[in-house]
Each structure stands twice: as C-alpha cells, then as structure tokens.
Fold:
Amino acid sequence: MVREFTAHELWFLVLAVRWTIALSAIAFVAGGACGLVVALSRVSRSGVLAGMATAYIKVVQGTPLLMQLYLVYFGSTLLRLGSDAWTAAALGLALYASAFLGEIWRGCIQAVPRAQWEAARALGLGYPSQLRFIILPQASRIALPPTVGFLVQLVKGTSLASIIGFTELTRAAAVVNNATFRPLMVYTAVAGLYFILCWPLSLLSEHLERRLERAGASPVSFQI
Amino acid sequence: MRARRRTVVLVALLGLLGLAASSLAPSVEAQNVDEIIKRGKVIVGVNTTTPIFGLVGTDGQPEGYDPDVARLVGKYLGVQVEFVPVTGANRLPFLLTNRVDMVIALFGITPERAQQIWFSMPYATEAATLVAPAGRAVKTVDDLAGLRVGVPRGAMQDLILTPQAAAKKINLMRFDDEATALQAMISGQIDVVGTGLLVNRTLNRNDPGKNYEVKIVLRPLHFGIGIRRGQIDLLQWLNTFVYTIKNNGELDAISRKWRQLPLEALPVF
Amino acid sequence: MDYVFQFGVVWREIDALLLGGWLTLRLSALAMVFGLVVGVAGALAKASRHQTLRALARAYVEAIRNTPFLVQVLLVYLGLPSIGIRLKPDQAALLAMVINLGAYTTEIVRAGIKAVPPGQIQAGTALGLSRWQLFRFVVCLPALRAVFPALGSQFILVMLASSVVSVISAEELTAVADTIVARNFRSFEVYLIVTGLYLAMCLAFQAAFAAIHRALFARWSG
Structure:
C-alpha cells in the first residue's frame, strides 16, 4: 500500500511533533534539576564533590549523545527496569542536559563578581543564603540566554531517540518515507518542522543576550 | 541554611527516582494465557516500516500481514490488541523486559535467537533474498563482485554474505533496518538490496521501469511468533492458534490479501 | 541482575572497532579543516557589503543551527539523489558534517573578528591596508586566538556527532558497534567499550588542540 505524500502525511508528521516537545520538556526539567546540583557541586568547596561533578561533566561532554542513549536503553534492560524507548530517551536526554546545563550554570555562577560573595559574607549570611539571595539571582540573569540556547540543542537531540525506536518526529519521517518513498519531500518537511520549533527559541536566546550586553552584565557567551 | 542545600539535592534525587520509577510501571507481566485474558488485552510488538508485513495505515494503525495475524490472536483470545511498534534492534529487549507479550514482526526462526526466546510454529514463509533491477546480471553470489550490496545489520543476508565479502570483493553496506536499505536502493545508492521474497513488488510500484526482481534466494526463512522462554502455556496456545488459522483458511486469506499469493505449506516443529 | 557480562566478545572484535574508529578520526579531521574554511567564508560573507550575500549567509546559518544533524545527514544521503546528486555514504557523511560545522564556525569566527580591538583595524586602515591585507595581517590570527577554545569545542562536537552517520551505512565506530551488537546481542558491553573509545578520541583531540595553540600563540604577549 504505497501512498502519495499528501496533506494527510504532513498532518501525521505534525502530530508527531507533540512527542518531540514532550520529550524535550521532560528532559529539560529533569535535566535542569540535576544540572543545578551538578553546578553547585562543581563550585563547592568540597574537593571530592567538585571532582566528581567535573568527571561527570567531562564524560558526558566527551561522548556522543547516541552512545549515552544506547547505554541507558540497554543498561535499563539489564537492570530489569521497563526498557521502553520513551523512558530511556527521557533519562538519557535528562542526564545529557544535566551535564551541559551544570557546566553552563557553573560558568554563570563564577561570572558573578567576587565582590558580591564577599559582600554577602560581610552581611553575615551563610553559604546557602549567599547562594539563594545574592549569587543565584544574579547568575540566573546571566544564565538565561545560554540556557535557552541549550534548549535548542535538546530539541534537536530528541531526533536521536528515533534510533532507539521512540516515535518522535524523525521516526515519523521514516514511517512516512516508507509509505510514500519520497525522501526529499519528507525530510525537507521534517527539517521545516524542527526549524519552526527551534528558530523562535534561538531568536529569543539572541534577544536575551543582546539585552544582557546592553545592561552591562558580564556575558558568559556559551558557544555551542 | 544547610537544610536549603539538602532540599535541593533531595528534590533532584526525587526527580531522578521518579523518572526511574515511572519506567517500572509499564511492564505488566502476563505469564500465561489466563493472565492475558484476565487483563483484557494482549500487547503485541509489530514492525511498522516494512512493506507487506508491517506498515502504518492511513488511520494511523499498523496494517499488514503481521498486524492481521495479531488481530486474529486477539480475536481467538477474546481480548483487545495493543500494538507496540518495534524494530529489528529492539524487538528482543522489548520482549525480554516484558514490554510486550509477544512479537509478531518478521521474526525469522534461527537457533541463535532461540537461545534467548521461544518461537511458535511458523506462520509465514519468506526467504532472505537479494533483489536488483532486471538490467543487473546477477545469478550467483560470485556475480556480486564489485557491486554495492545493502543489507540490514545482523539480518540473514548480513550473516551469510559477510564471511564471503572480502574474498569475493563484494561492497557490503549495512543499514540499521531493511526500510533504510530499500530507501537507499530507490535513491540509487546501492546496486543490490537484501530483502524478502515479495518486496520487489513494492519497489516496482515506487520506482517503475526498473523491473526489480529477486536475483538470488540466499536461504528460505520462516517467521514465528516470539515469546519469552519458559512460557509453556502461551507457547502451546499459540501453536494451537497457528494450526487453527492454517487449516480454517484465515491465514490463507491474509496471505492472499497482503502477498497476493496463496499460503504455501509451512513446516512444523 | 542475572545477566552475565561477557566482555570477551568485545575484545575479539577489537580490530573491526579500531578500523571504525579510524574512519571516525579521518571524517572528523577532514570535516574540521573544510568546516573551518566554510566558517571563515561564511563569516566574511556575513560582514560583506552586499546585502544578498549577508542574507544568504544568515539563512544558511539559521537553517543548519535549527535543524537536527540526523535530518541533515538523511537529506544529503537519501534526498539529494532525487535531484541527481548521488554520494557514497562516506562522502555524504563528510558533506553533512562540513555543512553542519560550517554554520557553527561561521558564528564563532564572526565573534572572533568582532573581538579584535577596533583600534587595530583603524590603525591598519590608516596605514593604507586593503580589506584583504587587513584580514590577513591584522584580524586573522588575533580572531583565531580569541575563539580558539570555542572552535576546539565545536570540532569535538562534530566528531561526537559523527556517530549519527551510522544510519547511512558509513562504517565508522558506531556502525561497527551496531553490527557487532546485531550479531551477538551483547549490547551493553559493546557500547560501554565504544563509549570509552570516543572519550579517548575526545581527549586526544583536546591534547592536539592544546599543542596547536601552543605552537601558534606561544610567543603571544597581547
């Protein structure tokens, strides 16, 4: 049963976008939560904690995302956890995000001027309060542009989940391609859909960065 | 103070645990027929990217030889059928971790695979073949010298040709699945593709004029329904089921509908 | 966990894996060189006086940076034949990697050029240097030095991204790993070793970049 590539097939692709969005959102939230832990560990005074966080970041940043997804997917099989592609993809992308966000936020925390730390300590605040009231609010402002920029990377990263069998947009493209055999049209349409998802985020990130530069804060430009 | 940092760590850990725990939920183990009937549905892994045996229909549901057999399983058990798309790479892990009750997805019966799972009696005939346009003169494996031959990774064609590839100067190219290999064939990226007995029809429909035909039948194959090892009850039921639909004409009807061929004699074991 | 790890099967296939790794290294190295060339060209295009050139460069960068690499690879290998361009898997992989890297390096090089103090450029203009001479003598090396770390990271990202070209049958490291797994189902062991190999390649490239940095900029005082 081979079909033509019609609006019907295009609609099938558009519907698959919700899985891409869902996967990106979950990975971003879970990865963000862990990323904060990673960032704080990295700047912590405990050498052990900082060392572990650094090693974690270096391993995740030094290995392909596809390999990480494979390891989580087949590793969860070994541990007899439900090995569906959805969980493996979400977990794998969350771990990926936690390392990159941890590194980004570490840079932003360290970009806050030393004087702020000293002033906070002079006010008699303990370390957690220094973080909560003085450092993190300033760091978040600096962190916003690269964080939004990384979200774009995450959305693009979800395309790899297709390789472990999760039906998001790229896998839907393969399905439609096998029903219609029109690769140029199908993959161009899919590229277009990803573009519609990612470009607004990229523009937002650039806009935020320009605003930050104008405000004179020391920008941490994370080129990735 | 210190409690704040602990809270952050706790929240993050809980988040991760929650993610892991949610993954435990879907695996509902059904070890025998009664449990499946009690549950009210049978979860079947099917392929959704292979012509004839498993594609996605216009209604978004799987359609093809294998999905129809799966629907008959549901009919005879009196339960609903829940389809889970699987690929050649993940059908084994899905089965072994209880993500699906059974796999009806072009699962060729081989002793290596039988080390990890059990097969029912064959319900379909196929073969590992090499397909090329009529213009390409290929009669034996020796004629493949210098040609680009695309095969799915780990498939029968890969296992048969790889040991000979270097000596016979075959340019063997491995793709993640048959679907991508067929795409490569149509795009003209390969000269010969490893596929089944009837896929050349699909190729001819999409790429008319080249007259794709089966050049070499490397090895006859039969497909069986894959289930986890040790499920004697389910295996017995499935064999009874296959015997039934072979003899009451339903499997023949499926064969005529999707393969446009009557059902051939299927071996039993 | 009743799984018995068998790393022996991986060591038996180690030469196939190393051969795959060698292709990864070759593809990555070539992509880095050509990608940098494309990036410099793109950066110059974006700084050009002609509006069409600027618009084209911008469209190229935005299109590539906002679509997944996997989709780009599939478009090059499966889609281009529809308009008559048929590339072998290795060629398609390299082309996709160069196009992808080129977009990112365009932005990086552009940032590097912007980082050159305007005073230097003004001084150069005052000395009567042409635009080309300005670029070659005043802008090029300082810009490169400013963005060297960013370039290095991007290069490594492309090397890691090359694992994706396994889907179009380019027999690089990931493809070889997939084939081994498809035969013996020892997925976890194989992918663990291969991940280690990628990490080793990443560290090797980082060391190489550090050495290049020292060689180029050792006598730098500014």
Summary: Chain C touches chain B through 20 residues (CB under 8 Å). Chain C has one domain: 8-216. The CA atoms of residues 120 and 138 of chain C lie 7 Å apart. Residues 14-46 of chain C form the longest helix (33 residues).
